Amino acid sequence: MLFNLRILLNNAAFRNGHNFVVRNFRCGQPLQNKVQLKGRDLLTLKNFTGEEIKYMLWLSADLKFRIKQKGEYLPLLQGKSLGMIFEKRSTRTRLSTETGFALLGGHPCFLTTQDIHLGVNESLTDTARVLSSMTDAVLARVYKQSDLDTLAKEASIPIINGLSDLYHPIQILADYLTLQEHYGSLKGLTLSWIGDGNNILHSIMMSAAKFGMHLQAATPKGYEPDPSVTKLAEQYAKENGTKLLLTNDPLEAAQGGNVLITDTWISMGQEEEKKKRLQAFQGYQVTMKTAKVAASDWTFLHCLPRKPEEVDDEVFYSPQSLVFPEAENRKWTIMAVMVSLLTDYSPQLQKLKF
Hints:
Helix content is about 40%, strand content about 15%. By secondary structure, it is α/β, with parallel strands linked by helices.
């Protein structure tokens, strides 16, 4: 039997005198949690089953409800510390991780390239072992996925991918929570990617089919996703009975899509390619013309920061745009990742119906 979380949240808001936006969560009967992620690394969603990813989203919703809506204090990470290695600058990843870890009672330690230069001042092996002796987990935002793999191999604590050249798994968790809130379920949605074959697209490809979501992705010629990622995504689509379309035509990718998604065309470290990339991505801007071929209930996602050539103001600031709830959900999802990898906590909110 389904219950309406909207009523529950409205009652809580009335009692506590809070005003907030209520989302359309669909929940089922409480189930005993059988997923155990404590001690795991989160390097890519490729390494997680659909049920494990769903658990992290369920936990995200639980923490958001208990802390934001009910005003509870949950020091689940009290006495724990987090090493935060940032080779690349960040707004959302840094703020969401620092504030989220502290809100849960833990102590985040921010480390830039001025503090720790991976593999230069000290070997990756030595860095991993030192951090393992002083912190409970490490979130690393790096240039090379191989550096994360080495850290994970040498460390005795969980290593979390805060972004690499190949994957950005914590961003996709926030995207999925946002869509779950808006649509009430993820199964059957068609995601339309229009942009670069980058780490965001790779992370979608490693996870969408596990929820029963279809993916239609348009990238310019020469900017397609990594072939090894594509091969595995095709396997996931076959196993889960979902559609995977890879094309060079933005309107073909947008056709019938529930969710229009794009990202920066020029990532950090690609600045020298700017002129070449801007030319290659001509015609890839998401506009209302793009939305006209999408589904009637279309929404828009962008992980930010956004440039006008990627999406125009009419779409970006439209009622269909979910970019700012998406940004906020970076906090609740990274908190859930930390709690799931470091504790035995189980959600109290009824399990979401995905």
